[in-house]
Amino acid sequence: MPNTLGNLRLREFTRLPAEAIIGAAVLLGLPRRPRIITAATAGAALGALTLLSLLDIGFNEYLGRHFNIVLDWELLDDATSYMEDSMGDTTTVLLTIGAILLAVLLTALVALATVHVANLLARHKADASKGALIAGTVWITCTAFGLQIAGVPIAADHTAGVVKVHARRAMDTLRDEAQFAKDAKADTFGGTPPAQLVPDLRGKDVIFTFIESYGRSAIEDPEIAPGVTGTLDSSAEALAKAGFHAKSGWLTSATFGGNSWLGHSTTLSGLWIDNQQRYRTVMASDHLSLTKVFQKTGEWDTVGVMPGVQKSWPEQKYYGLDKVYNAFQLGYKGPKFSWSTMPDQYALEAFQRQVHGKKRDKDLMSEIILTSSHQPWAPIPKLVDWDDLGDGSVFKSIQKAGVKPADIISDSTRSKQEYGKSVSYSVTSLTQWLERYGTEDTVLVFLGDHQPMSRVSGVRASRDVPISIVAKDPKVLDKIADWNWTDGLQPASKAPVWKMDSFRDRFLTAYGSTPSASQ
């Protein structure tokens, strides 16, 4: 059983597995009771390995990586929530029941089938022994001569290899947990006095915005790019007329296709957080996040706008946010757009109404997560007049007339088209908000959290995402002149590419922070 969708072809099943030959030899040598127990156990294990291969296929397609048997079980709950938002409760319940039945039946039926084969071997022991010997000889011969069918070796030890890979990955994960806990305690700026943190941004309202699934493919894939790059160019031109200028580069994300919180935390913590255990470790640590820097100075009010958060969010403490506005605190009365609880344009207008537009005694630092470009990219909101947004009810007819997730979820071409439209919508919403409400003291940092799933970005797509810094004050961009980023909102293909975890320290250094390691 292959563990990637690209290898799920008939020729893969024409291979001769070494494990079957060894298993037959072992079963032939056992008495009846041990033979049945061994066969049932081996069969159940084989069924479980098949389920792991199916999980590998799913994780490769959506997240660009293999399933981790230590860390990834809890992500299945997130997958269920995603399906509820994208396909509805009834469909999700039916699919969940189907998945559970598949797991139980596959394990049980393969176990029963293995017992049946073991009994057949025992009843025909002489012929079975000859057959095992012949099969073993064929396997050795095929290995020695490298015989293949359509480029696939006939002799296979795939199952043993899968077991070894999963075991090694599990051991590496356990070792990584212990080492990363030590690494997270070291912090280049952990001991920096508040007065020496980001002094060059005093007096500025700083906004960090993540655009969901805004990856390099949106700018460079020939099937997606024309619409997105056109949006970036027209948005940059409009911002320039309003007095804003920008520089853009690339970051390599710690995640792919999903698990956006890993991209957010990697960017803001300065640590490479590519799995759930690392995320939990950092969230429970005193490692200084980029957003908490502003809270630590005492010079900024710190706010989070999180329309995707629909339950308690203890991470608020780690990120140093005085106040978080979740999906239920932005006054939205319109419809959901699949997974996204509200259109980005509305979330930004609510931010303006409830936070940015109010008088304050301090400067403002905000973290905003935009969700309209979240898969399955259907239906997608449309821009409306900013003065007509109201409580969001204006989006009811737009949502009703939009494309249904089921219409594109298995169609790669349509998924690409709708993905590109969703990114254009998110970028336009953000830049129009800045053009409308930005001031001389506004500094906007916006970036993607990860590339879209491989069905859209491609099997061999990079993990790069665009990042831009936008401001009116020329001194803000002068501070990053030595970064060699591209002028405008669209990074050049040869613009610098940094790992996402390097951004925090580069940003803090550029804006005058003095390094002082935590003890």
Automatic annotation (TrEMBL):
Residue ranges crossing the lipid bilayer per the database entry: 36-55, 93-121, 133-156
| Family matches, as SUPFAM superfamilies | Alkaline phosphatase-like
Query: Which InterPro entries does its entry note?
Result: Alkaline_phosphatase_core_sf
Tell me which stretches of the chain form a coiled coil: none
UniProt KW Membrane keyword: yes
List keywords of the entry alphabetically.
Answer: Membrane, Transmembrane, Transmembrane helix
Domain of life according to the entry: Bacteria
| Protein name (record) | CDP-alcohol phosphatidyltransferase
